[in-house]
Amino acid sequence: MQHQVPQFIDVEDKIFGPLTAKQFFYLLGGGAVIFIMYVYFQLWFVIVLGAPIAAFAASLAFLKINGRPFINVLAAALSYSSSARLYLWRKAPLGSSKLPDGKKPGFSGVSKPGFEESGSFFPPGGATPKLTQSKLQDLSWSLDIQQKLKR
């Protein structure tokens, strides 16, 4: 008994003419918002606000960035902008998988100064280390010297 294997499983089915179901509903939603604005507001106001809404609905339906749908790119951008972006790294001593305080080495994401989550590498008391201009210059000088010594 032979079974036929689908060839194009990553291509969505065209349900509404040349549109997929997602594309159709994105355009339908944008059109509905513009129609409701048309019923309740003056024409110039509908044109001014309707153009960006139509562009957004069309980009949701048709735009792909690096082969990914615009909705996925938008979700990733919102997720990135609302997440913590402070990462601190402390290197473990050679031959050890744990730091002297018993914690594993690695990155620790922090959303607010003084916020301490399990596995974070802040000084005791939850204080965020402050980077002053002199500390930054010392660190830069130290890195420059180490790189010159390795050459």
Automatic annotation (TrEMBL):
Q: Where is the signal peptide?
A: none
Q: Which InterPro entries does the record cross-reference, listed alphabetically?
A: Uncharacterised_PrgI
State the source organism's domain of life. Bacteria
Among the Pfam families in the record, one is PrgI
Per the UniProt record, the source organism is Candidatus Giovannonibacteria bacterium RIFCSPHIGHO2_01_FULL_45_23
Protein name from the UniProt record: PrgI family protein
Transmembrane residues, as ranges?
24-41, 46-63, 69-88
Keywords from UniProt, A to Z, are:
Membrane, Transmembrane, Transmembrane helix
Q: Does the keyword Calcium apply?
A: no
Membrane among keywords: yes
Q: Where is this region: Disordered?
A: 94-133
